[in-house]
């Protein structure tokens, strides 16, 4: 099997490759995401904008929707890539909520264009969150 470091490097590479597929003629802000399932598969996604701006979708949600549509609902980590040089890319609030639907106990790797990264637990990115189990209370 692959080492943790090898899997991480692959996740980063897949997020960068996805970023290169971004369709962002309006914002010119390409983003890529790569999602690691607990089974070890990787699903990537990019942002896809639309002339009707509100119909655009973020890279993180594209990756999640691809994974879900292929039958995967259990996730271990996500890496997010952009062209930002001075700041780590972070997911928007809507993406954090969609990510949270599938648990709070997974890792999100926030990268810079130079490949440096920080890692945060999803529960750190969306504290005091509302999720599926709250509907059962």
TrEMBL record:
<dbReference type="GO" id="GO:0005829">
    <property type="term" value="C:cytosol"/>
</dbReference>
<dbReference type="GO" id="GO:0004126">
    <property type="term" value="F:cytidine deaminase activity"/>
</dbReference>
<keyword id="KW-0479">Metal-binding</keyword>
<comment type="similarity">
    <text>Belongs to the cytidine and deoxycytidylate deaminase family.</text>
</comment>
<feature type="binding site">
    <location>
        <position position="95"/>
    </location>
    <ligand>
        <name>Zn(2+)</name>
    </ligand>
</feature>
<dbReference type="InterPro" id="IPR006262">
    <property type="entry name" value="Cyt_deam_tetra"/>
</dbReference>
<keyword id="KW-0378">Hydrolase</keyword>
<comment type="function">
    <text>This enzyme scavenges exogenous and endogenous cytidine and 2'-deoxycytidine for UMP synthesis.</text>
</comment>
<keyword id="KW-0862">Zinc</keyword>
<feature type="binding site">
    <location>
        <position position="92"/>
    </location>
    <ligand>
        <name>Zn(2+)</name>
    </ligand>
</feature>
<dbReference type="InterPro" id="IPR002125">
    <property type="entry name" value="CMP_dCMP_dom"/>
</dbReference>
<dbReference type="GO" id="GO:0008270">
    <property type="term" value="F:zinc ion binding"/>
</dbReference>
<dbReference type="InterPro" id="IPR016192">
    <property type="entry name" value="APOBEC/CMP_deaminase_Zn-bd"/>
</dbReference>
<protein>
    <recommendedName>
        <fullName>Cytidine deaminase</fullName>
        <ecNumber>3.5.4.5</ecNumber>
    </recommendedName>
</protein>
<dbReference type="GO" id="GO:0042802">
    <property type="term" value="F:identical protein binding"/>
</dbReference>
<feature type="domain" description="CMP/dCMP-type deaminase">
    <location>
        <begin position="6"/>
        <end position="133"/>
    </location>
</feature>
<feature type="active site" description="Proton donor">
    <location>
        <position position="60"/>
    </location>
</feature>
<dbReference type="InterPro" id="IPR016193">
    <property type="entry name" value="Cytidine_deaminase-like"/>
</dbReference>
<dbReference type="GO" id="GO:0055086">
    <property type="term" value="P:nucleobase-containing small molecule metabolic process"/>
</dbReference>
<dbReference type="Pfam" id="PF00383">
    <property type="entry name" value="dCMP_cyt_deam_1"/>
</dbReference>
<feature type="binding site">
    <location>
        <position position="58"/>
    </location>
    <ligand>
        <name>Zn(2+)</name>
    </ligand>
</feature>
<dbReference type="InterPro" id="IPR050202">
    <property type="entry name" value="Cyt/Deoxycyt_deaminase"/>
</dbReference>
<feature type="binding site">
    <location>
        <begin position="47"/>
        <end position="53"/>
    </location>
    <ligand>
        <name>substrate</name>
    </ligand>
</feature>
<dbReference type="GO" id="GO:0072527">
    <property type="term" value="P:pyrimidine-containing compound metabolic process"/>
</dbReference>
């Amino acid at each position: 099997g692959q080492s943790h470091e090898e899997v991480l490097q692959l996740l980063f590479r897949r997020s960068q490759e996805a970023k290169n597929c971004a369709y962002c003629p309006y914002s010119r802000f390409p983003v890529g995401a790569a999602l690691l399932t607990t089974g070890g598969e990787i699903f990537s996604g990019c942002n896809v904008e639309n002339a009707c701006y509100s119909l655009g979708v973020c890279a993180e949600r594209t990756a999640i929707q691809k994974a879900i549509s292929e039958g995967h609902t259990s996730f271990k980590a996500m890496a997010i890539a952009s062209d930002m040089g001075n700041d780590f890319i972070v997911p928007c609030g809507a993406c954090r909520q969609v990510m949270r639907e599938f648990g709070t106990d997974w890792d999100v790797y926030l990268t810079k264009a130079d490949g440096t990264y920080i890692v945060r637990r999803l529960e750190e990115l969306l504290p005091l969150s509302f999720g599926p189990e709250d509907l059962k209370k």
